[in-house]
Design a protein that fits this description.
Blueprint lengths: L11 E5 L4 H11 L3 E6 L15 E3 L5 E5 H4 L6 E4 L5 H13 L2 E4 L13 H7 L4 E6 L14 H8 L19 H24 L3 E6 H7 L2 H10 L16 E6 L2 E6 L3 H10 L3 H5 L6 H6 L1 H13 L3 H10 L4 E3 L3 H5 L2 H6 L2 E5 L7 E5 L23 H8 L7
Parallel strand pairs: 1-2, 1-6, 2-5, 6-7, 7-8
Antiparallel strand pairs: 3-4, 9-10, 10-11, 12-13
Length: 399
């Protein structure tokens, strides 16, 4: 039986991005079956993140390669070509490949590609069916459009840092580059929508996406809380602005997470931990009551959990149908039975790598007809240049 094709089989993506936001998008497109050509600068040794160690995949002899763990997190299912975008011959090659592409995606500063004839205005005019996605720190317009974009700055400017961290501590960024990653996810959605429109009408378009715009868009309930009330959200640590109790709680031998989402769950929570006085207190009857009296409720329930082992508390609450869970380390999360059952870690073959493979985070999408496939390990710098030029370069035969 023939292997099923990916959902984006036949889609050709010319990837002029680096670091994380753009590569997150193009890795997703590659996971879904698109052919992704990653263009890397031979004058700098390629994508900056190739050098962002300290952890690297090993080659067959046990030596470090140019595949840092950071780079591998967002660059599987791609071919790497070494092309100098500042060289006229490199520009000629890329313009030819753009003519064959369904999608061009880049994350240069606004206007930075115009001098090479690779900007959206030039390429979209020459190829009306092209979907061209630009990712930048602040977008192609606005007073800050010329400023560079980094995940940390986007988290700060977009507001998420102001509500992240302990109530009495400083603002904190999220532990991973979430502004970059979510911008990459929005880029993926935008590209898929634009391809749908192109397939229906024949017309491509330009997608203008910024890290800061994306970061503000996923402020979700806290952003809308402010817009609705005019009241600034506060840092609450692990607590929730709209649900109580919803937090991390200390047990006798560690911490657990508790997420009581409605009033019946709260009644069952109190029953499971024998908190009859708390259950009968009119200050805590409804979620709105509990929000209003948060400062009284939390100290009233903490001692019951602090006196018991984690396993006991979790067993009681699970049996009662109260949402709760552990706080896993990354090691515990990635070796859990749930991850093993769901394919959360993927082993991807790489012929020149130690043990002939690398282990990467799996794609969470589960398709019934067009499953995600891991056909290409993250590429060594420029490893596919000859193949790509032979198949898609200016001197390649017409497809």
């Amino acid at each position: 039986m023939a292997a099923s094709k990916g959902a984006l089989d036949g889609v050709f993506v010319l990837d002029l991005t680096r670091i994380l936001a753009g590569p997150t998008c193009t890795q997703m497109l590659g996971d879904l079956g698109a052919t992704v050509i990653k263009v890397e600068n031979p004058r700098t040794g390629g994508d900056d993140t190739r050098g962002w160690g300290p952890h690297y995949a090993k080659d067959g002899g046990g030596a470090d390669t140019d595949l840092s763990a950071y780079f591998m997190a967002a660059n599987r299912n791609k071919r790497s070509v070494a092309i100098d975008i500042a060289d006229p011959e490199g520009q000629r090659i890329l313009r030819h490949m753009a003519a064959r592409a369904d999608v061009v995606i880049e994350n240069f500063k606004p206007g930075g590609l115009a001098k090479y004839g690779l900007d959206h205005a030039t390429l979209c005019a020459a190829h009306p069916g092209l979907v061209y996605c630009s990712i930048s720190g602040f977008g192609q317009t606005g007073p800050n459009s010329s400023q560079p974009g980094y995940d940390l700055m986007a988290q700060g400017y977009g507001g998420i840092m102001s509500i992240t961290g302990a109530p009495d501590g400083p603002p904190m960024k999220v532990g991973v580059g979430i502004a970059d990653v979510m911008c990459g996810m929005y880029a993926t959605i935008g590209i898929l929508a634009a391809l749908r429109h192109r397939d229906a009408t024949g017309a491509g378009q330009h997608i203008d996406l910024s890290l800061v715009d994306a970061a503000m868009a996923w402020l979700v309930n806290e952003g809308t809380n402010y817009l609705t009330s005019g009241t600034l959200p506060e840092r609450r640590g692990n607590a929730h602005p709209n649900i109580v109790p919803y937090d991390a709680f200390a047990c006798a031998d560690g911490h657990i997470l508790l997420a009581v989402g409605n009033d019946p769950q709260f009644a069952r929570f109190c029953d499971a931990l024998e908190l009859s006085e708390v259950a009968s207190d009119p200050r805590f009857t409804t979620n709105l009551d509990r929000i209003a009296h948060r400062a009284a409720l939390i100290p009233a329930i903490r001692p019951a959990m602090a006196a018991l082992p984690k396993a006991d508390v979790l067993n009681r609450l699970h049996s009662a149908g109260v949402p709760c869970g552990p706080i896993n380390t990354i090691a515990e999360a990635l070796t859990s039975d749930q991850v093993q059952a769901r394919g959360g870690v993927a082993e991807v073959a790489g012929a020149d790598l130690q043990d002939g493979k690398v282990r990467l985070l799996g794609n969470p999408l589960k398709f019934s007809a067009t499953p995600v496939r891991y056909t290409r390990a993250p590429p060594r710098f420029g490893q596919d240049t000859d193949e790509v030029l032979d198949r898609w370069g200016p001197d390649a035969p017409d497809l």
